[in-house]
Amino acid sequence: MEITRRGFLALSGALGSGVALSSLGVDLGPAKAYAAEINKMQRVMAARQVTTVCCYCSVGCGLICSVDRNTGKIFNIEGDPEHPINEGSLCAKGAGFFDLTEANKYRLRKVLYRAPMGDRWEEKTWDWALERIARLVKDTRDKGFVTRNARGELVNRCETIGHLGSSNVDNEECWLMSVACRSMGLVYIDHQARV
Amino acid sequence: MSNHYIDLKNSDVILIMGSNAAEHHPIAFKWILRAKEQNGARLIHVDPRYTRTSARCDYHVPLRSGTDIAFLGGMIHYILTNKKEFREYVVNYTNASFIVSESFYFKDGLFSGYDAKGRKYRKDSWVFEKDARGIPLRDMTLTHPRCVFQLLKKHYSRYTLEKVSSITGVSKEDLTKVYSEYSATGVKDKAGTECYALGWTHHTTGSQIIRTMSIIQLLLGNMGICGGGVNALRGEPNVQGSTDHAILYNILPGYLKMPAASQATLAQYLEKNTPKSSDPQSANYYQNYPKFTVSFLKALFGDKATAENGFGYSWLPKLDDGKATSLMHLFDEMYKGKIKGLFAVGTDPAVSSPNTAKVRKALENLDWLVGENIFDNETYCFWKGPGVDPAKVKTEVFLLPASASMEKEGSQSNSGRWVQWKYKAAEAPDDAIPVGEITIRILEAVRALYAKEGGACPEPILNLKWDYKDAKGRYDALKVAKQINGYFLRDTVIEDKAKGTRTEFKKGQLVPSFGMLGDDGSTSSGNWVMAGSFDAGGLNKMAKRGKDDPTGLGLYPNWSYAWPVNRRIIYNRASCDIHGKPYNPKRKLLEWTGEAWVGDVPDGPWPPQADRQRGKYPFIMKPDGLGALFGPGMAEGPFPEHYEPLEGPLTKNPLSGQLINPAIQIFSSDMDRVANADEKFPYVCTTYSCTEHWCSGALTRWQAWLLEMQPELYVEIGEPLAKEKGIENGQRVRVSSARGAVECVAMVTKRFRPFQVEGKTVHQVGLPFNYGWLHPKDGGDSTNFLTPTVGDANTFCPEYKAFMVNVTKL
């Protein structure tokens, strides 16, 4: 959803007044930082604004992502002042939300695989991984499937595969996982709601 | 939450117990402070440790970890002996007047029906006497010796100030101060609320702690009102939604019960789980259980679910009666070598699960592990963890890159049940895709194999409706959201006799309310509580951003969608007297005009209960329609009772002959060692988080700004204990329990003070649980090396908050 940016960002057009001082031997560190902020504010004003919800505790604070229209990349995330719960404010984690984007060098970007007895990750393609996972799931399920319990009751369950997580994905994803688990007959199903 | 975050501002007394809201829910705390600023609300913090929450409250009362029921039981005793209860509310809206069966009793810590061998109860004596029509007998004077009110009074008469003080370590003066201030809300125009978090759930008695508070809130008339309720400040962004959608062994989406092996047919399952009431004034809303169930099965299996095949019920997995398969059971079975494969999605159990050494050993028994996440963590890398030789670990591990929260569209539900829609801001990097898409693709691949090769019970896999991709073949969150809401599967006419309306819906339209679901296969709904999140025309109410607040109470009815049916405060009819007149005219949540309710969305359209013909009781989800001061729902008894933690400093429970909760399951592998009142581990220990890290730290430890603020593991030790042990602030120490040890920095502090318990000095220490070996390299490993594999008797929430340790200098 794109929303209209609030007026307060329009307040400062005073970029550049300190730039000419560099030749005079003045410490420009603070001035440059200030200029960078002004620059960012102008970029924010020109950006596509997309609302999201914080991914940490369960208060449900609103945030606004500023997305560069040319690159499609997020370059700033801040609290949504129109959100009735957080009214623009965020805690330390929420304020650092930007560090969850691809700007964080530790983000996983490729499918990784560790072979039995292996000591390292290898990069793989999605197709390769999906095919191998499906084979393992099917073989494990078929081998361990319990059609009837000791009392002869029909139970149709798989006791050899577990599924954990997650309460930090979206509702629609939760529902898909919940349903996928039931279709495979899994019963060892749990997540952070209990821990 | 029975209420919601903004509603905290409407309270007059806020008891924060089992939570450090200022540090873990800082934005929620803003609304707590607003209650103080705007209403002059009193803020009370009860917690073993002095925190930033304590600093902003009117006062802090320290109590020994694991003694909350004793503390709150003392409050019930205080309320009843000083007649502080809201009498009219208690008589009309709770089951205080019900007469309990003659066969019920309580003796020396045990209720009637205990089976010591099975560590469980037979509940057939925890019932009410009924008249010929099957309606519970009542004594509205509350004087019958077997009425709930008198039994409650008798049960908690043992929780005297002296006894409670000796158990909890709280002074009698502090107890009286909290009890008198909080119970002053038991009047028409005052509201008291309680905020808890993991500090209550992480105990072997966790559910019963919360139930004790619920009893207090019912006695004081604080349920269903603005500024009242029992409010869980939950710790994960969508833990409400993930619970609603049941990524849990014990329920199906919408809190439908997990089918048991003895329920062979749909009819048997529905018969067992559909509650009955003979009282015409009880709405008994769960009488609609068959509609919710059949609509769920239709959402699951589509056209393949027919009346003839019981809508596919037989394809669902069934657990043996009484069997639990929680996280702790999963790792216990994995440790025994019985679990071969594991999916670990957005989770790091090698840090977050109790008894880490056992968990990490168990992972080595897996044939395969599939991880899905935005960062690597200690679970996915267990094969190269401390002390593990990769050459000896057979497990195949897949680590699949996932989109971060702002890189995908979808909804999240906050603790106040607000379901908020969020939008995709950018593409995920490289090969990362949403978890929803990973789920779709894995099951598609499994399905293709079953279609080709056949195999064990292929029907539920092949018959599952699984078409949640858009035209480009990508995960389509909106399509899933609509399936969760549900559709009319035939042209349908809904008649509302009360309103005299008749509405036609076409096949393919969305169901605008769960009141319209059918039990005949005419509707689908992936989760009935969410039916109504769209209107029939397809408007997504979760995306609403209206800022109007007509009541002035902060309900914001047009911001997002709150389940059920956009009700912002549940049980809200209890905010009015039996004629529908608001108890508190200053905070008018709801009012009966004689024709209809105005205000919040009421808990049902029926007139208030004074109308003996058409009126209904307010607690519509309870079979009897009334708040249950006494009931059969809990594993360890109809009234909460204090038991010591699995590991504690005492050899005897000061209140009875039962030291620990008699209904908890004891895990008994060789790695499940326990040391109660053992001189080798003399200090009570608890665990917690900090503002800068989140849960296991699996997301936040990878972020430089946050890590700089909280770089490594520490243990907080009170000054007297540090002096006794010769430990100085900043020194490195070893904290050990019967199960394992961690090394960390000692933080010597005034925040922990020793308790006087049963005439002895008991020290308590505490550690955060946010660290693991993978990153940062020198940040310390999991605090859960210390914690035991044991959980609540009802929920199996692990007991992370009370166990015994030693601390030694390195």
What separation lies between the terminal Cα atoms of chain A? 34 Å
Strand order of the largest sheet of chain B: 22-28-23-25-24-29
Q: H/E element string of chain A?
A: HEEEHEEHEEHE
Helix amount of chain B:
10-25%
Strand order within the widest sheet of chain A?
Answer: 1-2-3
Q: How large a portion of the residues of chain A is in β-strands, by DSSP E?
A: 15-25%
Strand coverage percent of chain B: 5-15%
Largest sheet data of chain A? 3 strands, antiparallel
Structural class of chain A: alpha+beta
Radius of gyration of chain B: 27 Å
How many E strands of chain B?
29
Shape of chain A: elongated
* Main beta sheet of chain B: 6 strands, mixed, barrel
Report low-confidence residues of chain B grouped into runs of 5 or more: none
Mean pLDDT of chain B: 97
DSSP helical segment count of chain B: 21
| Quaternary assembly | heterodimer
What would you call the shape of chain B?
A: globular
What would you note in describing this structure?
The complex is a heterodimer of chains A (195) and B (810). Chain A is 28% helix and 23% strand. Chain A has helices at residues 29-46, 92-95, 126-144, 171-184, and strands at residues 48-53, 62-67, 74-79, 111-114, 122-124, 145-148, 154-164, 186-190. Chain A has a three-stranded antiparallel sheet, with helices on one face. The longest helix of chain A is centred in the C-terminal third of the chain and has 19 residues, at 126-144. Residues 4-21 of chain A have low confidence and may be disordered. In chain B, helix 4 crosses helix 8 (172-183) and helix 14 (327-335) packs across helix 16. Chain B is globular and about 80 Å long. The longest helix of chain B is centred in the middle third of the chain and has 19 residues, at 435-453. Chain B has 21 helices and 29 strands. The model of chain B has no long low-confidence stretch (mean pLDDT 97). Chains A and B meet through strand 1, strand 2, helix 2, strand 4 and helix 3 of A and helix 2, helix 11, helix 14, strand 12 and strand 13 of B.
